[in-house]
Amino acid sequence: MNSHTKLIRIVCLFLVITPILLMVSSTRLSAQENFNVVVSMAKGDLNRDLLADSVVVTQDTIADTSPYRLEIYFAKKGGGYHLNIQTDKAINEQSPNGKDGYRDGYGFSKVTIKRGVIELQCQLIRGYFMHKFRYQNGNFELIGYSYRTMNPLGVSFADFNLSTGVYLGTEEYDDPEQKTTKNREIIKVRPLPKLQDFVPYSNDLY
Fold first, then answer.
1. Edge-to-edge strands of the sheet including 53-60?
2. Is the pLDDT of residue 64 over 90?
3. 3-state secondary structure at position 94
4. How far is 174 from 14, CA to CA, in rounded Å?
5. Which domain of life is it from (predicted)?
C-alpha cells in the first residue's frame, strides 16, 4: 500500500468518525454532564436501511461510581446521524460502591455489532457475560444472554435465546469423577425487554 492510498484511507476514516464524535460532544455540552471518555464504538447497519449506524459507549470518569452511557445513532440518508436511544442503565457502573469502595470484579469490555445485532460484552474476574439486542418492532429488544464463569468446582456457562425461549446451562467439574451436567429449559419472556428500560441482572434470568 503506497503513501497516497494510506492518506486517502485516513481521510475517509476521519470523515466517518468526526460527525459522530461532534454529535456526542454537543450532547455532552447541552446536558452539562461529564461522560467525557469514549471507551468503545461500533458501526453497522442496525435498522436494515443499508446505512452504517453507530453505537457509542462513554464513561463519566469524574463521578465517584464511574457510570457508563450507551448511545445509538441512526445514519441519515442525506448524511449525518440522529440519536435514537440514550441510556445510562444498560451497563453497570464500574465502581458501584464508589472508587474507594469494594470492587465486585465487574468490568465493561466493549460493544460490537454483528449481523445487525448489538453485543454488550462485560468481563468478570473469572469469566464474562454478554447481552444481545436487535432492532425490531420499533425498539431494540433483548434477544440473547450468555455467560461463562469459573468457580471452585469447575466452570459454568449458559446461553439464553430469548427469542425462542431456549435456555441451555452447563456445569463442567474439575473432578474427573463428576460428570458434566446439562440443563435445557424453555423459558418464555414476553414482551422482550427493551434496551431503554434494560438493567442487567435485575432478575434471575439475565
1. 35-44, 53-60, 68-75, 81-87
2. yes
3. coil
4. 50
5. Bacteria
Strands (E), 4-80: 35-44, 53-60, 68-75
Q: Which residues contact 35 (CB under 8 A, 6 or more apart)?
A: 28, 58, 59, 60, 67, 69
The arithmetic mean of pLDDT across residues 51-66, rounded, is 96
Q: How far is CA 180 from CA 106, 126, 156, 162, 205, in A?
A: 27, 19, 10, 24, 22
90 is written with which cell numbers?
Answer: 444498560
Terminal alpha carbon distance of the chain:
46
Of 129, 130, 175, 136, which is closest to residue 152 (Cα–Cα)? 175
> 38 near 22, Cβ under 8 Å?
no
The 10s digit of each residue's pLDDT in 92-146 is 999 988 988 876 677 999 999 999 999 999 999 889 999 999 999 999 999 999 9
- CA separation for the pair 148, 133 (Å, rounded): 19
